[in-house]
Design goal:
The complex is a heterodimer. Chain A is mainly alpha-helical. Chain A contains 18 helices and no strands. Chain A has a domain of 265 residues: ABC transporter involved in vitamin B12 uptake, BtuC (Orthogonal Bundle). In chain B, the strands form 3 sheets. Chain B has a 6-stranded mixed β-sheet, with helices on both faces. In chain B, strands 2-1-4-5 form a 4-stranded antiparallel β-sheet. Classes of the chains: A mainly alpha, B alpha/beta. At the A-B interface, α13 and α14 of A face α4, β6, α5 and α6 of B.
Chain lengths: 404, 313
């Protein structure tokens, strides 16, 4: 336990500040350094490294494809002032054409863009952005669920969210084909409803982490069986492939529409997660301590789970069920920045996107590099392939995987 | 009426309301609570006026998994501003009783009154500002620092979005000083020994700055040095503050030395209660703990020399 790291180096930036003041109060009262915890060297390093990775992988994504360009061309296209400095184009992408016209009052034709710029901004960049959003959502969702269930193996999907979403996806594709336009919404709703069912099953004069996880297993088992059963009723291979894409998670064909769909929920969920980080920290001290310190534990647990489900649902709606990101990223982050949830959440906001954008490079371009075939694989396959071995490495290296 | 009196400047309506409640109905119930117990006058009279009352009446406590209640209709009054020790053999229900007093277990019947208010009907945070509980087993992430752990004790005093205040910093400072873990403050909890961990947890519950402090076997499993450290903290609380302390102790000699009042339990029943000299006797030891022992009165309270376990019955 001891000796992994000199214990004294646990002193945070706030601690250092205090030492200079002397014997009096060590932590700045009223926190003149409100955000002091953000500028902790380990966290900054993690954020910077992740950001670099996102940029590098993103650049690969926007450069290569059916129409390949050099990194320089791609970079110039991303930073094309014709888009970045023209609010009409920029809002056209971010808000959609209709909203852009209402906001700017502009009714004419948008100015012409260069060929590269069009490809990058119209097709390739939104996919990178969706990956960023999905990565952040899954990582934060997983981090919250790991604290709420006090279970290191918890993922965003531990409380039935994935099985509920998977079942409704199959139902929509196989039985209610007419509703497939609403598939993203239905999947997200299915996940949330399954979570509520899990909670209702686990509830008996309050609940507990173990009861919740068990109820999640029960609901998951039943729903997964139903989902697998439905595959037999799929009459053509296209439906099956589409179902597999959704249930393993894929970013193929994602567009600005997906960015616009997920972004507001993501911002809300991330904000709430940060606001709830102190409650998460207290949950880590155990139910009894949290209760004796006056936490209304059931309310807090339900509310935080709700935030995590919101984040997971937002990512399901745009990318389907991407596994392993929500399990692995919180572990990585905890190992790098410690167990303080304020830092864990912020770290997840950076590391999640890095893993997701990186994995999507493999999903989009991997097959054409390996086999020369012009095919894409679901990104969930790549995250599993990357995440599994990394988890093994963590397990071998540390006796206590991700001290929780 | 707090551990450090640091709350004097606090203008929160919550503490204001409870203050007046203590002076009104609390004062009225005082003699009644002391009457049957037999404890005449608390050591410091002005402390008693400010200190909080914790009274349990006809408390029935049990666990949903067990058909029979562990505690079946017992009443206990913690002496305001003094230390009350709960002693008894394993499984006698002392920890259960303590959890009931702390509203951690919902009573099947009866009630626990804190300054005349039913703890179960109180808002959880308002209760946690007045009543602190240190559980027997506490878990924490290994990588949290002692100082951060102690800051968690301020949870009930902070609003949802509130940052730590000067008030919080002061309470944490005093708690760390009082528990003597200043040299540990930047250490990670995972790197501490069992005894050091216990001091850190005591600091956390002290930072909560409550009028009533409930401690569940704070000295069990500690080496002698750390047992004495914990005892000294409780002695300091007894002598220098008007905190009402209820502590479960395994070691009856420690209880006799530390407490103003000892309550002995067996099988969920209170067998004896009163000043240590009256409760810690050879008869009680044979009846409650089922040991033959020699009790010698010394100037540090009764000294217990256990001789043999009783095997009859």
């Amino acid at each position: 336990m001891s000796g992994e790291r000199p214990a004294t180096d646990g002193g945070s930036v706030t601690g250092d500040e205090g030492r200079r003041i002397g014997g009096g109060s060590r932590r700045q009262p009223v926190e003149g350094n409100r955000l002091g915890w953000l500028f902790e060297p380990r966290l900054l390093t993690v954020a910077a490294a992740s950001l670099l990775l996102v940029v590098a992988a993103g650049l690969v994504q926007v450069s290569f494809g059916a129409y390949s360009m050099t990194a320089g061309q791609a970079w110039r296209a991303v930073l094309d002032p014709a888009v970045l400095l023209d609010p009409r184009w920029f809002l056209n992408f971010l808000l959609g054409e209709e909203l852009m016209r209402t906001v700017t009052g502009f009714q004419g034709e948008l100015p012409e863009l260069a060929h590269e710029t069009l490809i990058v901004w119209n097709i390739r960049l939104p996919r990178v952005l969706v990956a960023v959003v999905v990565g952040a959502n899954l990582a934060v969702s997983g981090a919250i669920f790991q604290a709420v269930t006090r279970n290191e193996l918890a993922s965003p999907f531990i409380l039935g969210v994935s099985s509920g979403a998977g079942l409704t996806i199959l139902l929509t594709l196989v039985v209610f084909g007419g509703l497939s336009a609403f598939l993203p919404l239905i999947a997200a709703l299915g996940g949330s409803v399954a979570f509520l069912i899990v909670y209702a099953i686990a509830w008996k004069n309050g609940t507990s982490p173990v009861r919740l996880v068990l109820a999640g297993v029960i609901v998951g088992t039943v729903f997964n069986s139903l989902q697998t059963g439905l595959f037999f009723f799929a009459d053509d291979i296209g439906v099956v492939q589409s179902a597999i894409q959704w249930t393993t998670g894929s970013l193929t064909g994602t567009d600005w529409e997906q960015v616009r769909m997920a972004l507001p929920w993501t911002v809300a969920a991330m904000g709430l997660a940060l606001a709830g980080s102190r409650q998460l920290n207290l949950l880590l001290l155990g139910e009894q301590t949290a209760k004796s310190l006056g936490m209304s534990i059931e309310k807090v647990r339900f509310a935080l789970s709700g935030v995590a489900v919101l984040a997971a649902a937002a990512s399901i709606a745009v990318a389907g069920i991407v596994s392993f990101v929500g399990l692995i990223v919180p572990h990585v982050v905890r190992n790098l920045v410690g167990s303080d949830y304020k830092r864990v959440i912020v770290g997840c906001l950076f590391v999640g996107p890095a893993l997701m954008v990186g994995a999507d490079v493999g999903a989009r371009l991997g097959m054409s590099v390996l086999t020369g075939a012009d095919a894409q694989i679901p990104v969930g396959i790549v995250t599993g392939l990357v995440g599994g071995p990394y988890f093994l490495y963590l397990m071998r290296r540390r006796r206590n995987v991700g001290d929780l | 009426m707090t551990i450090f009196g640091a709350n004097a400047t606090e203008s929160e309506e919550q503490s204001g309301a409870t203050d007046s409640a203590a002076d009104g109905p609390g004062a009225a119930t005082d003699p009644a609570a002391d009457g049957p117990g037999g404890a005449a006058e608390p050591t410091e009279s002005d402390a008693a006026a400010d200190a909080s009352d914790l009274d349990a009446e006809d408390l029935v406590l049990g666990y949903p998994t067990a058909p029979e209640p562990v505690i079946d209709g017992e009443s206990i009054a913690a002496e305001p501003g003094a230390v009350t020790a709960l002693v008894g053999p394993n499984g006698s229900g002392k920890s259960t009783l303590l959890k009931g007093l702390a509203d951690q277990i919902e009573p099947d019947d009866g009630s626990v009154l804190l300054d005349g208010r039913d703890v179960h009907s109180m808002d959880t945070k308002a209760l946690a500002k007045q009543l602190g509980l240190l559980s027997q087993e506490s878990t924490s992430p290994d990588s949290i620092t002692v100082e951060d752990l102690v800051y968690h004790g301020r949870y009930p005093h902070r609003g949802f979005f509130e940052r730590t205040t000067a008030e919080d910093a002061r309470a944490v400072e005093r708690a760390i000083e009082l528990s003597g873990c200043g040299h540990l403050r930047d250490r990670e909890v995972g790197s501490l020994s069992g005894g050091q961990k216990q001091l850190a947890w005591i600091a956390m519950v002290l930072a909560q700055d409550t009028d009533v402090l409930l401690l569940d076997e704070p000295t069990t499993f500690l080496d002698l040095h750390h047992q004495m450290e914990v005892m000294e903290i409780i002695e300091t609380l007894r002598d220098e503050s008007d905190v009402t302390v209820v502590v479960v102790l395994h070691d009856i000699e420690q209880a006799a030395r530390l407490a103003d009042r000892v309550v002995a339990l067996t099988d969920g029943e209170i067998r004896a209660s009163g000043p240590p000299e009256e409760v810690v006797t050879e008869e009680l030891l044979s009846e409650v703990f089922r040991v033959d022992a020699e009790v010698v009165a010394t100037d540090r309270g009764p000294r217990v020399a256990p001789i043999r376990a009783r095997h009859e019955e």
